[in-house]
Design brief:
89 residues, mainly beta, 3-stranded antiparallel beta sheet, 1 helix, 20% strand, extended
């Protein structure tokens, strides 16, 4: 098992969602694309689910079984809210 820590984060806005690994954007999807599958849910409170999924239609199936079995070790999870924009009086 590698001892190299990786940093992953997701950033949501009113126009889309971006996913980053170690500061490099890995995947982005716009609101219009999301809404072809259902309602846009990123403008309300929601839960964070950590999942080690392999295969499927998102990234496709792995090229080999060499990565399995896999383990996801999580040191911590932080959730930030964007700063509140205040209008000067």
């Amino acid at each position: 098992m590698s001892s190299t820590a990786r940093r992953a984060h997701a950033s949501t806005s009113s126009v889309g969602v971006q996913f980053f690994i170690d500061g490099a954007m890995h995947y982005a999807i716009g609101r219009a694309n999301v809404e072809t599958f259902g309602m846009w849910v990123f403008d309300q409170p929601f839960y964070v689910i950590l999942n080690l999924a392999v295969g499927g239609s998102f990234d496709g199936n792995p090229q080999s079984d060499a990565m399995l079995p896999a383990t996801m070790l999580v040191d911590y999870v932080r959730v930030y809210a964007p700063p509140v924009q205040r209008t000067p009086m």
